[in-house]
Amino acid sequence: MAQHETTVYIGLGSNIGDRVARLRESVVRLSQVIKVTRASRLYVQAPLGYVSQHAFINAVVEGRTTLKPFDLLVELQKIERAMGRRRGIQYGPRPIDLDILFYGTAQMESFELTIPHPRLAQRAFVLKPLAELAPDLMHPVLYYTVTQLLADVDDADQVKLYDPGV
Hints:
This protein has four helices and eight strands, in the order βαβββαβββααβ. It is of the alpha+beta class and about 170 residues long. The strands form two sheets. Strands 1, 2, 3, 4, 5 and 8 form a six-stranded antiparallel β-sheet that branches. A two-stranded antiparallel ribbon has the order 6-7. A hairpin with a 4-residue loop joins β6 and β7 (about 115). α3 (about 125-135) packs antiparallel against α4. The model has no long low-confidence stretch (mean pLDDT about 90).
């Protein structure tokens, strides 16, 4: 009997070193853990909170997995560690950040993991690339589509398509 696959959306971000190369590498590593089906374009926004750092470049990937949510989290954290991520300053600089945004229509909340991602609705840097992939995806808690959430977020105009020439 084949295992059931769940569609997941993973947020990616980097603001240290060659950010674009790190995002590409993270997608390659992710594809060894999940079936990556699509990836958004790259977006840039000034950093939140801890401002003495480079701007984050963000993207979202869509994939399919048979992993359970906690097992997927463990795999994402392994990728982060392998790519040099060290836990420290909240919202601080990081070579790679991988977040489970949605895991099918699952809703869960624990100390280690909350799905859907708890700050998703306030983050234009997540919503813009997510809207590119799944504009009509319904948030299973808030009952708004990704497009509706993006329309309500204050800083949407601060998130731009990444232009390496700028």
